[in-house]
C-alpha cells in the first residue's frame, strides 16, 4: 500500500528555519509572497501527483506533521492500512530526525525490543528532559516502528534536500544529491560508539562488533530534488496534508481547502 504525506510548506519558494516548538505563524511580509499560486498548486496536485476530484482518495488534514504518524496508527489498528507501506513524503523538510536527539535513542537498546513493545514507546529522556515524537522526527519513528517499507522524499528544490541523519544510512554511505533523483537507504543499527564495551577498543574488535551489531531492515530512501521529477499517477491508498502552522503564513491556508477537493475526509 502507498500513502501520500504532504506538507503545506512544500508549496513555498522560501523555506523557514524556525524552532520545532514555535507556535507562531510565519510573517506575511517575509513569506506571504513565496506561497504558490492557486493554479500552480492545482497543477502540482493533478499533474505531478495524479490526484483527481472525480476519483477522491481517503485522507485527512492535520496541524502538526507528527499527527500523520498517529493517523497511520489509527488506520493500521482499524485494519484499513496494511504494513509495511510506502510513503511519498512531499515536504520542505525530511522529518527524519535532523536537529532532534531521537536518532541516538532509536539506535540504542530500543532496537532490541519486539515491535509491539517499540510502538508503546512515545517519548524518551535526553539531557534530563522528556522528549516526544515531534514534527522533525515522526518519519524516523515510523521507520523504527517498522511501519514503512520505503520513503520517496519529494524535497522542496529551494531546500537542502539532504536533511537526514547520516548515521542512520546503511553502511554510513550516501549518494550525493544534484538535480536528479537519488537513492539512499536508511538502516537503523545499534550505536556502537555509545554501546560498545570499553575494555577492548582494537580495530579488529570494533570491526567484528559492527558486523554483528543489531540492524533493522533497510528502508529505501528515494530523494526527488526537483518539481519536474515528481511524477505519480494518483494511486495512493490514503493521503494526509499537514498545515505546519509554524512553517507557513496564514495566506497559505487556502491550500487546505483545495486539498479537500481531492480527498474523502476520514
Overall number of strands: 10
Count up the domains: 1
Helical stretch tally = 9
Alpha-beta content class: alpha/beta
Largest sheet: 8 strands, mixed
Shape: globular
On the 0 to 100 scale, the average pLDDT is 92
User: How is the largest sheet built, in terms of strand order?
Assistant: 7-8-6-3-1-9-2-10
Q: How large is the share of residues in beta strands?
A: 15-25%
Helix content: 10-25%
Distance between the termini: 17 Å
Task: Please characterize this protein's 3D structure.
By secondary structure, the chain is of the alpha/beta class. It has one domain (2-265). The protein is built from 9 helices and 10 strands. It has helices at 28-31, 38-48, 67-77, 102-106, 115-118, 138-144, 192-195, 203-212, 254-260, and strands spanning 2-7, 57-62, 85-91, 123-126, 129-132, 148-155, 182-186, 219-224, 238-242, 263-265. An 8-stranded mixed beta sheet has the order 7-8-6-3-1-9-2-10, sandwiched between helices. β4 (123-126) and β5 (129-132) form a beta hairpin. α2 runs parallel beside α9. The protein is globular and about 60 Å long.
